[in-house]
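RECORD TYPE: protein structure
NAME: DNA-binding protein
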Amino acid sequence: MFNGSRLEELRLLNGLTRADLARELEVTEQAIWQFETGVTLPKMKNKIAMARFFQVEVDYFNAVDKNGSFSLSRIAFRNADLEAKKTIHIQMVYLEKMNQMIDYLENFVSIPNQIIYQLVDSIDQKLQQHESLEFIADHAREVLAVSVDNANLLYSLEKSGIYISERLINGNADAYSAWSRNGRPFIVLGLGKSAVRRNFDLAHELGHLLLHNQVDFEELSKEELEEKEKEANQFASYFLLPRKQFLMDFVNIVGKRVSNPDQYILLKKRFGVSIQALEYRAYKLGLLTPQQNSYFYRQISKKGYKAVEPLDLEIPLKKPSKIRSILDVILSNNLLTLSDIERNQRVSKNFISQLFSFDVKFFDKYLLQLDTFDNVIPLFSRKQ
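PREDICTED:
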């Protein structure tokens, strides 16, 4: 038995064309097509080569996957990528593989206080009551207990029940978000962003998850999609820079030199938000005139701040850690061994670390424990 769709998924997950994979496996491109579509079954040597290349078990290709956990209509991609079907397909595969692994791991841990679900319900009520977007953003910020400097934003979102990962995203997407069919929220971040731009991406995608969880993105026109993007951007601005605190700090830090980008550097440190996003919030609050706003952006271009701003290299970039924490609880408490996880999922530790974008050395201490205490017989069997 050979499930060709699993080969296709792995190929897409690694960003390979059929020609790319054919070169790696030393077969023809037509052979790859035949394997994926079930026209021809690969020989054992081909299956072994595939498994070695993708760092999975040989019998990985024998498994039959359940029905998809995601609907394309529930994934909030940025406008530029909605027409890039290949990019969307790749990200769908990525979400499916993450969700399958998380489904398995969550059988062995209890994750309390996942307040994202209560927050969604309360915001749905506030939307029905026609509360302002700024009020809703302030409410979300309060519920999630985000610090003034937004330094704990990623942690707060993960703690709330959102699964966050990072990976190289093809196309023009900075990030995207989705709800699975069984109600699990995801945010996938792109690579190569500064800490402050990552904060905005997180707040933007949170806006999609909270405001657009019932939206069918496939049914929207280009104009309607742009409106949803605008709404998520506005939510992010309100969420990251609450009015009362921002006004007070703006007066004390920026002062009257509102057109000088360098005056915003300390404010950037204060909120963990880019200089341009800070000025945008100030402009929308009427703290700059249109002329001052235009002069500000001329200075941004002149100083080269469109590419790299001051403090971009100094403010530390936070990385997702929820999956590692779950794995640590499971492995440290001997609920499963690393071999158990690899065997059940039919993948290697390298595959797992690449899927969730962390260093494979994370697993070293668990391998060491196994090597050191392999002569100890547990009194109680692990949960199967």
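COMMENT: The CA atoms of residues 244 and 257 lie 20 Å apart.
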